[in-house]
Specification:
By secondary structure, this protein is of the alpha/beta class. About 35% of the residues lie in helices and about 20% in strands. It has a seven-stranded mixed β-sheet with strand order 4-12-11-10-7-5-6, with helices on both faces.
C-alpha cells in the first residue's frame, strides 16, 4: 500500500513520525509498506528482547488465546502464578505484582514505598531519584524523573522527589532527612544516554540505605530481563535491592511489566493496588515464554559474548573515526560521537538503500544500540558496515 492509503490523520500527534508504516518483522529485521527491510537495532526501545515474532512467544500467545484471555485481576490464573514463581526463583524478591507498562510498575513502586513509610517510618514519603533519570510518563513518574524540562510540562509536579547525581554518593547522603523513605535509580540510565551506575556506587548506595533504614528501588524497565548480560542489572553489583520494576523486555513486545519486592516490603492491603488488565493470562503466558528462553542454559552467556563483540566493534570504529569511545552493559550500549550528529545519522540510516538501519540517538552526541538479545555477530557486522557507509557521507 502507498503511505497515503493509511488513515494516519486519525492518530493524535505525539511525535514526528516518518512517512512509512511497518507491516511485519522477523528476528532482527522489520519491513515497511513498500517491502523495504530494516536491520532493527532499536527493537521497540529495548522491548523485543527476542526479536520480532519469536516462535516461542507466538506459540504461547496462540495457545493461551484459545483458553482464557482475561478473567479479571480479582481472581488467580495459571500463567500469572507461573510467571511470578519463575521471577522469584531467579531473583532476590519474594512477591510480584503485574502491570501493563514500566511507568505503571514504577508508579506502583512509589505507592509501595510510601505505604511502607507510613507503616514503618513515621509517614516518610520522599524518594531520592537522580538527574537525567527516566521513570515513565505518568504525573508521578515524570516528577520522579530527572529529564530536563519535565518539571514544567505538566506543572505542578508531584512533590517528594529530590534529585541526586548518579555515581556521587555524597550527593545522595546530603538529601537524606526524616521524610526520606527510599532511593530509586536505574542501574543503567537508558534515556539519559546509557550511563551505568558503577559497581562501587551501587554497593555504597545499598550500604547507605541500610544505614538509614531506607528502601532501595531499582528501575530495571530498560536494563532488566537479560539486557545487561545478567537476568537483572542489579546482579552486576552483587547487591540485594528491596524493590525492582521490570517492563519492556519482560513481554518481548506485548504490554507486560512487573513490580517485585521482598516479603518485608509487601505492605499493600486490599484495595490499595489493582488494574483491569493486570496479570491477565494472555500477556503473562507470553512473559513466561520470554523469561523461560532468557533463563535457558547458555542464553545469558551468549548475550554477554555478543555484548562484548558489539563493544569491541564500537571501540574499533571510535578509534578509527576519532570519536569518544563507548559505554554500556551487555546489549545496551552507546557510541559517544563527541559532536551533535546523532540525529543526522539516525535519519540517514533509516533512508539507506536497499536496506535501512534503525538506531537511536538518546542524546544528540551519541547513538544508542538496543538489538534483540539473540542478535548474531553477523548482524552486528552488517550494522557496523552500514554505519560506516553513513559516516563516509558526513
Amino acid at each position: 500500500m502507498n503511505f497515503n492509503e493509511y488513515p494516519v490523520e486519525s492518530l493524535m500527534y505525539i511525535t514526528n513520525r516518518p512517512e512509512i508504516v511497518f507491516t511485519h518483522g522477523k528476528g532482527s529485521w522489520i519491513y515497511d509498506n513498500t517491502g523495504k527491510r530494516y536491520l532493527d537495532f532499536i527493537q521497540g526501545w529495548a522491548v523485543n528482547s527476542l526479536g520480532h515474532c519469536n516462535e516461542g512467544m507466538i506459540e504461547a500467545l496462540n495457545k493461551q488465546a484459545q483458553l482464557l484471555i482475561n478473567p479479571s485481576p480479582a481472581f488467580y490464573n495459571g500463567p500469572m502464578a507461573q510467571l511470578a514463581q519463575l521471577l522469584t526463583e531467579h531473583s532476590v524478591f519474594d512477591k510480584v505484582f503485574f502491570t501493563n507498562s514500566g511507568a505503571e510498575a514504577n508508579e506502583g513502586a512509589i505507592k509501595l514505598a510510601r505505604k511502607w513509610g507510613r507503616k514503618h517510618k513515621d509517614g516518610a514519603y520522599e524518594i531520592i531519584t537522580f538527574d537525567h533519570s527516566f521513570h515513565g510518563r505518568t504525573l508521578a513518574t515524570m516528577s520522579a524523573s530527572g529529564k530536563p524540562g519535565w518539571d514544567t510540562i505538566y506543572a505542578p509536579q508531584v512533590p517528594g522527589f529530590p534529585k541526586a547525581d548518579l555515581n556521587d554518593i555524597a550527593s545522595v547522603e546530603k538529601l537524606i532527612n526524616g521524610k526520606t523513605v527510599a532511593v530509586m535509580l536505574e542501574p543503567i540510565q537508558g534515556e539519559g544516554g546509557v550511563i551505568p551506575a558503577t559497581r562501587e556506587f551501587m554497593q555504597q548506595l545499598r550500604a547507605l540505605t541500610q544505614k538509614h533504614n531506607l528502601l532501595l528501588i531499582v528501575d530495571e524497565v530498560q536494563s532488566g530481563c537479560g539486557r545487561a548480560g545478567t537476568l537483572f542489572a542489579y546482579e552486576l553489583s552483587g547487591i540485594e535491592p528491596d524493590i525492582m520494576t521490570l517492563g519492556k523486555g519482560i513481554g518481548g513486545g506485548v504490554p507486560l511489566a512487573a513490580l517485585l519486592c521482598t516479603a518485608a516490603v509487601e505492605v499493600f492491603e486490599a484495595g490499595d493496588q489493582g488494574g483491569t488488565y493486570n496479570g491477565n493470562p494472555l500477556m503473562t503466558a507470553v512473559g513466561y515464554s520470554v523469561i523461560s528462553q532468557l533463563t535457558a542454559p547458555g542464553f545469558l552467556e551468549g548475550v554477554r559474548a555478543r555484548g562484548e563483540y558489539l563493544r569491541a566493534k564500537l571501540l574499533e570504529l571510535s578509534e578509527e573515526r576519532g570519536f569518544e569511545g563507548e559505554r554500556g552493559e551487555g546489549l545496551l550500549r552507546a557510541l559517544l560521537l563527541g559532536k551533535d550528529i546523532g540525529n543526522q545519522i539516525v535519519e540517514k540510516a533509516r533512508n539507506l538503500q536497499p536496506d535501512g538501519l534503525l538506531v537511536n540517538a538518546a542524546r544528540p552526541n551519541l547513538l544508542r544500540f538496543m538489538p534483540a538479545l539473540n542478535v548474531t555477530n553477523e548482524e552486528i557486522d552488517q550494522m557496523m558496515a552500514m554505519l560506516r557507509s553513513i559516516l563516509d557521507t558526513l
